[in-house]
Known about the structure:
Blueprint: H1 4-16, H2 19-26, H3 30-44, E1 49-52, E2 55-58, H4 60-84, E3 90-97, H5 103-115, E4 119-126, H6 128-137, E5 142-147, E6 156-160, E7 162-166, E8 178-182, H7 188-199, E9 204-209, H8 213-221, E10 227-230, E11 239-240, E12 251-257, H9 263-284
Parallel strand pairs: 3-4, 3-5, 8-9
Antiparallel strand pairs: 1-2, 5-12, 6-12, 7-10, 7-11
GO molecular function, one term: DNA binding
Pfam family, one: LysR_substrate
Keywords: DNA-binding, Transcription, Transcription regulation
Amino acid sequence: MLDLDLLHSFVSVVDAGGFTAAGERVHRSQSTVSQQIRKLEESLDCALFVREGRQVSLTEDGERLLGYARRMLALSTEVREAVSGRKRVDVIRLGIPDDFAADTLTAVVSAFARSHPDVRLSVRCDLTAALTRGLERGDLDVALVKREPGAGRALAAWPENLHWIASPALDLAASGPVPLVAFPQGCIYRNRAIHALEAAGKHWRIAYESPNLLGLQAALAGGLGVALLEKRCIGPGHRVIDAALPAVPPTELALCVIDTASAPVRRLAGAIQEFCEEETTRLAA
């Protein structure tokens, strides 16, 4: 039998990013949390974390355990609430790409939260690679992800037409290798850009890298380079320079929901789907 208290400490270490911060979350000392993790590892006969100084990361066994641990803890809470007669609070874990965490979508999510007071929303803004892993692990219930067209099941999906964007002040011909402004490695836009340039025989370099869209937009406006982004990301001080660089095939924005989604999760997904449909129509105009 797995001790739920040990699983709680395990999940806390993952969420907090370390043993000391996890101890603060569960109101225990760092040494106590470390002892609990060792006990859990001994009971499972495997290592769950790779320890590098104060930093910790999950092993493959730890990755596999995480989704189960979250589900077991959630089920334990559900059982206590059902037996005690307390009103259940549904928790919805939503994942949104950074370039979609804008005022408009946030307003949709906020309106859903206000109309569902019995629902507790936990929103994560991250790169698609991290959101996809979150869905696979069971860390997220619903997420918007950017991916190759038709790459798996989705509640709904929309094509993304990518554009080369730069500042009017950037002289691309005089800049040598194409200076790329990009999200970190693993981003499908970045991969598309590099593949298109290399296929066309063009040299490139990473001039500016950021996990945050606002950083990329500022770098573009400042003339630091060019970026391959969706139309919704074009801001003041930007221009489209598609004619100067290779054509790029469309990617896809997909709304993914876990198979065991509750009714509130489905309702939130429906609200996001409606928003994305409206955005697609607006951008196509």
